[in-house]
Amino acid sequence: MASISSVGFGSGLFSSDLIDQLVEVEREPTVKRLDLREAEINTQLSDFGRIQSALINLRLSARVLSNPDALGTLKATSTASNFSATVDDSSAITGTYSVEVTALAQAHSIATGVFVDKETTLGTGTLNITAGGTSAAITIDNGNNTLEGVRDAINAESSLNVSASVIDTGSGYQLVLAATETGLDNAIEVTVTDDDGNNTDTSGLSQLAFNGSAQNLTETVAALDSSVKINGITLTRSSNVIDDAITGVTLNLSGKNAGSPATLKLELDSDGITDRVQDFVDKYNELQTLVNEVTAFDTSTNQAGSLLGDASLRNIMSQTRNLLGSVVSGLESAGVRTLSEVGMTTKASTGEASTDSGTLIFNSTTFKQKLAASRDDIMAIFAEQGRTSDSQVKFLSSTDLTKAGSYSINVTQLATRGALTGSLGLVAPVTIDDNNNTFKIKVNGVESADITLTNGSYTLDQLTTEIATQINADSNLKGANATVNVSVDGSNQLQITSTKYGSSSSVEITQIDTNTTATLGLSVVAGTAGVDVAGTINGKTATGVGQTLKAATGDDSTGIQVQITGGATGDRGTVTFIEGVAEQLVSLVTNFVSVDGALTTKTDGLNTTLQQISNERVKLDERLESFRERITKQFIAADILVTKLQSTQDYIKQQLDALNGVNKNN
Asked: How far apart are CA 468 and CA 268, in angstroms?
């Protein structure tokens, strides 16, 4: 329908301005209502966004505490300044050590004599340089036989653990070769094939020789290993960084303290752990303070927070508070069972609007005392933990599907290792020679290259050590992590046993030497394969792989894996899975913010309401446009009627005026 753009062409009583005013009167209350509702929804969305950010921050802090390592970390302190120690992982254990550094590792360095000119030629031929298991044959010809040319040729060998430089001494130039790694094993050796025919003299290229036959270079820094006494036991390493002496600890040596041992302590990092718990408390308090703000009611102004009475927020906070205040399942009889027992209490409400009502108060002194006395229980309060009642049953892992609880374990078959036993009772000494020193073996399905024993006369202990050493040094087997133990049984027969447990564990001799069977009792034969552990967890048949028993799917114990390291078949006690508060909170918050979680559902509903408001505005515009057209038509009709009445009025007036004129004339 075409709209009418103007009225009032006749009487002048009705105008477009009047229509606009009437339309605006009709519009105003609805627009105010929609604007107010839209502002409320936007405020609620903004506040729920803030709530979500606070929940995610709390989840991040909880995730840190849900890692058992975060609550069991150790710190290293030392009375010495000549070395530092860092704790690398959770394998470190508390203890006190005496540490005495008697020598520092040094990188080998050798140098030529002083040359007046760095363009001096050194002869031609081949330099064979070796250092730290790397070597290179470098050709020196008339194009690179100066000090700088030799330097550049050496440095071009990127895989060689040697760097070269030309030093300006002020009175001349020296070519210096330096090992890139410290230690005796990285000492530099230079042999020369000199084009002048003499490989050891001090003229031509052989002036760079440095080996057992000729040392024509000067050793400016000797190659040295570091030497350290730990609790009186001397050990040497090629580096000043030692990470394999004390389990889980790296020592960084920077000086010597020979004769004055220092004390190194590995102790629980209670300050660091307390800081992590304090961060968790702070993040929760930020959330609670925000909730107090958006749900407050100011009695003096009668102003309410945007989320006062909101059921979704009330449900979220109720679940969170209940979790923080509950006894952790599995710790009912432990020394500490709840957060309140480790120094974490809730600030009581004063009955008035308060920004800190319901926040947590953390007593760090109480926490540290409980941590020192009940470290395992503290870890279980926050993080997930598995406990077994049998010392030869070890908890390995769980999954997100595992439910907290205690589950019985029954073993029907213990895992074994693949093994092969020789057919001959050995009598010492056993002679190894070219007729019995070579064989091939297949371990866990991986075949070795030729295994060659060192010729000689052996006691039985020496023989088993030699066989094990040579087998385990084989590159094929090492690459597959297939190793063996070698021993003799009660009849002095050789016994080769895989170190792996389970049905994939096997030992097989695949090739022997001429007299191997006659002297060692080994022949081409397969040994006895290993078997996997078998049994039940929570009464359900579990899956066994090696020594690992994995709980059945679809059960409360789903995801639990335990290692049966020994013992007997039958009832093996229980495995208890404990899910700490922090671990549970991570899952809880994840549910809140998930696609179908309480927070997402609520914000989706608010956004839907915003869209409805937008739709109402469109409908309002359509209704008002119809209203405008209707009253415009009414005004036009009224205007036409008034115009007719005015015309009739004018006619009557004319007639009356005419009658008055006639009467006057008479």
From this structure: 40
Strands 226-230 and 233-237, sheet pairing:
antiparallel
When mean pLDDT is compared across 26-30, 294-298, 341-345, 612-616, the lowest value belongs to 26-30
Q: Residue 547: is it exposed, middle or buried by C-beta count within 10 angstroms (0-12/13-18/19+)?
A: buried
Q: Say if residues 115 and 173 touch (Cβ distance below 8 Å).
A: yes
Separation of alpha carbons 494 and 528, rounded Å: 14
Span 284-309, pLDDT tens digits: 999 999 999 999 988 888 888 888 99
Which distant-in-sequence residues (6+ apart) come within 8 Å of 14 by Cβ?
7, 8, 635, 636, 638, 639
User: Position of tokens 């009224």?
Assistant: 638
Token readout for 507 is 């030992």
Q: State the angle between helix axes of 16-66 and 270-294 in degrees (0 to 180), rounded to the nearest 10.
A: 160
Condensed to tens digits (0 to 9), the pLDDT of residues 1-52 reads: 344 444 544 555 556 777 778 778 878 888 888 888 988 999 899 999 999 9
Quick one: how far is CA 204 from the chain centroid? Answer: 58
The answer to whether the beta carbons of residues 641 and 40 sit under 8 Å apart is: no
Tokens found for residue 122: 């050194």
Residue 163: phi, psi to the nearest 5? -120, 150
Residues 471, 463: Cα–Cα separation, whole Å: 12
Residue carrying the six token digits 């957060």:
339
Q: Strand order of the sheet with strand 405-413?
A: 385-388, 570-578, 405-413, 534-537, 540-541
- Please spell the DSSP secondary structure of 436-469, one letter per residue: TSEEEEEETTEE-S-EEPPPEEE-HHHHHHHHHH
Cβ-based burial of 522 (10 A; exposed 0-12, middle 13-18, buried ≥19): buried
> Locate tokens 């096997």: which residue?
506
Q: Which secondary-structure segment (H or E) carries 664? A: helix 598-665
Stretch (H or E) spanning 236 = strand 233-237
DSSP string covering 509-547, please?
EEE--TTHHHHH---SEE-BPP---EEEETTEEPEEETT
Query: Which among 505, 560, 499 is positioned nearest to 531, based on CA atoms?
Result: 505
Q: How many CB atoms lie within 10 A of CB 241?
A: 13
Q: Which DSSP string do the residues of 312-351 spell out, in sequence order?
A: HHHHHHHHHHHHHHSPPTT-TTSS--SGGGGTEEEPPP-S
Q: List Cβ neighbours of 314 (8 Å cut-off, separation of 6 or more).
A: none
